[in-house]
Amino acid sequence: MAAEYSSFVAIGDSFTEGVGDPDPNGGDRDRGWADLFAHRAAEQWPGLAYANLAIRGRLFDRIVDEQVVPAIKQSPDLVSFAAGGNDALRPGFNPVQLSTRAHEVVRLLKASGAEVVLFTCADITPHIPGIAVLRKRFVATNDAYKRVAKRHNAVLVDLWNDKAFEDPRLWAADRLHLNTYGHQRVAYDVCEALGVDPDPSWSEPLPHLPRPRREMNGVQWAGKHFAPWVKRRLTGKSSGDAVDPKRPELTKVK
């Protein structure tokens, strides 16, 4: 019988914040896989409380420094931790350093009494022009998380080997973030990993939608999405500079 949890805190960057999945109820914050999972899990774990501390654009060290202690102070019995994707896109990326600190983070979370969910990143290299040169970085990051999960007996959600993410219909127009269908797929995978029955609609065939790579060519995509990202890097700014956690405290899922 699968374990049941009473409180869930999500830690991370845009992936966990939910960027790319607009709130269908018209809220001013995106929804995302963690919200989807929490609401589905609450149907099977009555009284589940949920917090989401993730902020877009955050690098690994800042995620650890800003989110881990606030998560532990809330004494959750389930924590998801996803960090390092933004680091892999930047010069000076050091997978050994990331791995070392990830071990320490998971050790602390486990020592607090929480079950920990880790992720390998989904493969973005088929969707973004020229990014295949960074493929080794993503593989190194994924290998680090696999070792950490094995060493600390954490739950690993292996998105890299989920072939569903090869379909560009799961990706937002910027090709870096998941869209609604992509976040639903992550929520499905997390449910499967934790013994929660996924929403059946998450595994239905995708509708015939225009595929992002056909909506705009490489030059148009670079001008609209890649150039602003580069500008932020050069000016030392982040997309999350003025963003606060959307759900900073554990509250019951309604």
UniProtKB/TrEMBL annotation:
One of its GO terms (molecular function) is hydrolase activity. The keyword Lipoprotein does not apply. Residues 10-185 form the SGNH hydrolase-type esterase domain. It is an enzyme of class 3 (hydrolase). It comes from the Bacteria. SUPFAM superfamilies: SGNH hydrolase (SSF52266). Keywords: Hydrolase. The keyword Ribonucleoprotein does not apply. Signal peptide: none annotated. Its EC number is 3.1.-.-. PANTHER family: GDSL-LIKE LIPASE/ACYLHYDROLASE, PUTATIVE (AFU_ORTHOLOGUE AFUA_2G00820)-RELATED (PTHR43784), GDSL-LIKE LIPASE_ACYLHYDROLASE, PUTATIVE (AFU_ORTHOLOGUE AFUA_2G00820)-RELATED (PTHR43784:SF2). This is SGNH/GDSL hydrolase family protein.
